[in-house]
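Quick one: structure for this chain?
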Amino acid sequence: MCRYLHTPVAAVIALVFTLGGVAKSALASGLVPPTGYYNEVKHNSGSMRPCTPAPEPFVGALEFPSKYEGSGKSRSTLNEVSAKRYKTLTKSISDMEKGATKLVDQYMDGGSTQTLQCVVAWYSVWADAKALLGPAINHTGKSERKWALASLSSAWLRLKFSRSQPLLVYSSKAAEIDDWLGKIADQVTREWDKDDAREKINNHYYWAAWSVMATSIVTNRRDQFDWATDMYAIFAQQVDADGFLPNELKRQTRAADYHVYAVAPAAMMAAFGKANDLDLAGEGHDALHRAVERAITAYDDLRPFEAKTGAKQVRFEPEGKQSKFAWLEPYCWTVRCTGVIAAKLAQLRPLQDTRLGGNMTAMFTGR
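Got it. Here's what it folds into:
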């Protein structure tokens, strides 16, 4: 199947913004995000929040315990002691991901120059310290690096591409931040080898690919973008005729949870592919659509996964359940959603996810 779309989306975007008086050379010749990333900054009056210091940059080796430590190959039984230790050791990274994304959301919604200064300061502190560039000692360490990159690059994109051009006055510092994110992405591509055995490639690799694809738009690096699309192709090959991902079914009691989790980065990559004239959603004979239809059933009915695995599924926690389906926004931007999927999206809005970049409804609908 030909990956390239018949409609030159990137060229259309370039023309629209050129005619609108916003000159951005990257639009004409470089990689671009979906149209919602060009949203203008809103200027709403409201209480100003003081800028708290950025979390301490994480500059050491990335070595963290798995929260499923000791649970065997299925990695399905939560080890509460390990989970608590993991949370403690990764606190500064988690605080940076959530805090920076929230600051970007606040700035895009309110337009406060103090908030913009704050978010640039946060990124600058971590970039200057060369945070997240230490060696990854174990699998969880590698995972933490690409999750953090996904959050930080996808949120930064909103500032970088906004028609309001908020980073114009921070051009030098923004370039340093771009370079830092690009270096993290280079680490990620080395740590998640697309030539690994197919039985090994699962949601972690898809999330690595999304983090690199988001960064490739920041850095305008086609090599990073192509690496991510190659990983997406593996995802498309892995979705079976019924929409299941075999390597997520291995998670037994958590198969449904991890199936939903695996679809999120794939949906984002498909949206970014469309923005760059690439029909990723159509790969694997519409593999993403099959995976999404299967994932939607998991919101209300876990029986298909229980029948497939022979294991009773762990129920999604009510808190945070909605964010697990935030990828519906990019998916329904990429393809026209109808029926059950469209109804579920309408029911769940507004949708937000830190590792996809924040307020997904705002990014993909302007609301």
